[in-house]
Specification:
The complex is a heterodimer of chains A (476) and B (101).
Chain A lengths: L1 E3 L5 E10 L3 H12 L4 E4 L12 H7 L8 E2 L5 E2 L22 H10 L3 H4 L2 H15 L2 E2 L6 H10 L5 E2 L1 E2 L26 H7 L3 E4 L1 E9 L2 E9 L4 E12 L2 H11 L7 E15 L13 E3 L7 E6 L3 H6 L5 H8 L5 E8 L5 E5 L4 E4 L4 H20 L2 E5 L12 H6 L13 E6 L16 E3 L14 H16 L1
Parallel strand pairs in A: 1-9, 2-3, 2-12, 3-9, 12-21
Antiparallel strand pairs in A: 4-5, 6-8, 7-14, 10-11, 11-12, 13-16, 13-17, 13-19, 13-20, 14-15, 15-16, 17-18
Helix pairs in contact in A: 1-7, 1-13, 5-13, 6-11
Chain B lengths: L1 H7 L14 H22 L8 H12 L4 H17 L8 H6 L2
Helix pairs in contact in B: 1-4
The chains are: A alpha+beta (476), B mainly alpha (101).
Chain lengths: 476, 101
């Protein structure tokens, strides 16, 4: 049962109370209910109802703080997260990449207990099951579109089609606005309905204010509905916190848990725009049809980006008449992105309006982004771009030669030189051998806040696999 | 803010950021508008709104290419907000109209 807000006070009880209905929370609910456990899921946002599919509607109904959250640091770094039933899975590009084994090996090398806490074979088995639930498949050629085909040509054999959880995709290119056709199997359409069918109760528009403790044990949560009515849920077995690596530490800190939010990591990303002579953005096309993992060893991956047109237009350089003139060519503008496996660590603190993320990418992280942008610029020119707009301070506004493209990689990695955005968040919460936060009984973190590091690839698959393993350990 | 948005996107006519955007974001946006006024006062002795269109454009271009990161980021933010809130007029071209659709 999905309860969308409430005009009266609610007092609930279940075996497990899950805070957050995104990749981790919904997946845990799915597999806990499959084991016969009773589950209550509490979600701050509303059920997604994308209709028009424009940037305004998406920002104001699906994105946290209408997409205006940003990290505090030397670089300007917007942080994009979903705030709706289904969480960020509703607004991501649908890309599904398994946890790289080399990353898992790094975790184990740093702390051997991860080998028994999260065995790689168990994670892989969980991933395979979740992939079936979400219909994960390789993007077919007819959905590559102009952007994907151009990327494939420009990358000269180093690009592959993405694997996506969008089995019925019609190529509307609107994943980031919430799929208007319900084709993308975000967890609100794949995991939660099955959990609900098995008895889970999902409360939307209900913000958890704090976790309730009795004799040092987590026993439930206190929250408030959008309309102001109070909500309380008691958990007889455990409280699962699955609100993301930004919201989870913040909720824990609000609830009096010490030493959380330290060591926050993310994948800062940057975009490259290129103007072509032919149409790039014609339909049908998948939002993110192509990617390249060829440079993963160097700490970054490359991918195509299909954005709402307003976001795409913001990547076009200039203001005034020149900007307006360039906007007329928007159908011929390709946007490709680089996401870095950044080494920098930051912190999530309690801020005056919500979580305050302090984070500055290191110079080495900026070098990774510059290298990635340089490769993308060269690939665009190789695919016959008329000009490329890097938006990097110190670079020409428009790049037209391979030499100029290569020079991007040699620019000084100054703070603020590369406009960035981050969408994948990790770390900040320490758990014991039962995934209990700081060893607090029955307080279990199941999202990417418990990852020992960032992973260098799109994290939805890994988050779901980890949540599955934890849910089955606690629910079994 | 309207003067800034129009300087970025001539003919801009848009939605107001009421309630849908958090209060602190709306406050920050308003305060950032004061930065444009301050720069305009220093360079031209008038607030941004009182500048000629060409002066507004020149000032925004100067900020967009500034050696410090924060003026560049401000212009980028204004540009994004202008685009997201823009309601193209009925007689606009298809390309304009599809910006919001």
């Amino acid at each position: 049962m999905l309860i969308d807000g409430s005009a009266r006070s609610i007092d609930e009880a279940a075996d497990f109370v899950i805070v957050g209905s995104g990749a981790a929370g919904a997946t845990a609910a799915r597999w806990l209910t499959a084991l016969g456990r009773s589950v209550v899921v509490v979600e701050e946002g509303a059920p997604p109802k994308p209709a028009r599919g424009d940037a305004w509607e998406a920002l104001t109904t699906l994105y946290r703080d209408a997409g205006s959250m940003a990290a505090l640091g030397a670089d300007v770094l917007p942080l994009l997260q979903g705030r709706c039933v289904g969480g960020t899975t509703v607004i991501n590009g649908a890309i599904q990449v398994p946890l790289p084994e080399e990353v898992w090996a790094e975790w184990v090398a740093a702390e051997p207990r991860w080998a028994t806490l999260l065995p790689f074979a168990a994670l892989e088995a969980a991933r395979e099951r979740n992939d079936v639930e979400m219909g994960v498949a390789k993007t077919p050629g007819d959905l590559w579109g102009g952007n994907g085909n151009t990327f494939f040509r420009g990358m000269q054999g180093k690009a592959t089609a993405t694997w996506r959880n969008a089995p019925g995709c019609v190529g509307a290119g609107r994943c980031l606005q919430g799929c208007p056709h319900g084709a993308k199997q975000s967890v609100d359409l794949s995991m939660l309905p099955k959990a609900i069918a098995a008895g889970a109760r999902v409360y939307a528009r209900c913000k958890v204010e704090r976790i309730v403790f009795e004799a040092g044990r987590a026993v439930g949560v206190d929250g408030i509905f959008e309309g102001g009515k109070p909500f309380r849920a008691r958990a007889s077995r455990a409280v699962f916190v699955a609100a993301s690596a930004i919201q989870t530490p913040w909720l824990l800190a609000r609830s009096g848990v010490k030493d959380v939010g330290v060591g926050f990591m993310c994948h800062p990303g940057a975009g490259m725009a290129g103007l072509f002579a032919r149409e790039i953005n014609g339909l049908p096309h998948a939002t993110q049809a192509m990617e390249s993992h060829a440079m993963r060893g160097e700490g970054f991956k490359l991918e195509t980006l299909g954005m709402p047109r307003a976001f795409q237009a913001a990547r076009v350089p200039g203001v005034g008449a020149l900007f307006e003139e360039r906007l007329q060519q928007l159908d011929r503008v390709a946007i490709w992105g680089v996401a870095a496996r950044a080494e920098a660590r930051g912190r999530v603190r309690r801020g005056p309006w919500g979580p305050l993320v302090q984070y500055t990418p290191s110079p080495a992280d900026r070098v990774k982004l510059l290298k990635g942008l340089s490769i993308l610029a060269e690939a665009m020119l190789c695919a016959e771009a008329i000009e490329v707009w890097p938006a990097v301070h110190g670079a020409p506004e428009a790049i037209t030669t391979v030499k100029q493209a290569r020079d991007l990689a040699n620019l000084p990695p100054l703070a603020g030189a590369v406009p960035m955005v981050a969408t994948h968040f990790f770390c900040g919460v320490r758990v014991d051998d039962n995934f209990q936060v700081n060893g607090i009984p029955a307080l279990v973190a199941i999202d990417s806040s418990i990852f020992p590091s960032n992973i260098g690839v799109n994290p939805m698959t890994s988050i779901m696999a980890v949540a599955t393993v934890i849910a089955e350990r606690w629910g079994g | 803010m309207d003067a800034i948005f129009i300087a970025i996107l001539p003919g801009w006519h848009g939605r107001r950021l009421k309630r849908t955007f958090p209060r602190h974001v709306r406050l920050a946006l308003k305060l950032s508008g004061a930065v444009a006024d301050l720069v305009a006062l220093v360079r031209h002795g008038r607030t941004f709104r009182l500048l000629q269109p060409s002066q507004r454009e020149e000032l925004l271009n100067r900020m967009a290419h500034h050696r410090w990161a924060w003026p560049r980021a401000l212009v980028q933010w204004w540009k994004l907000v202008a685009l997201v809130t823009w309601l193209p007029p009925e007689d606009s071209t298809d390309a304009d109209r599809r910006l919001g659709a």
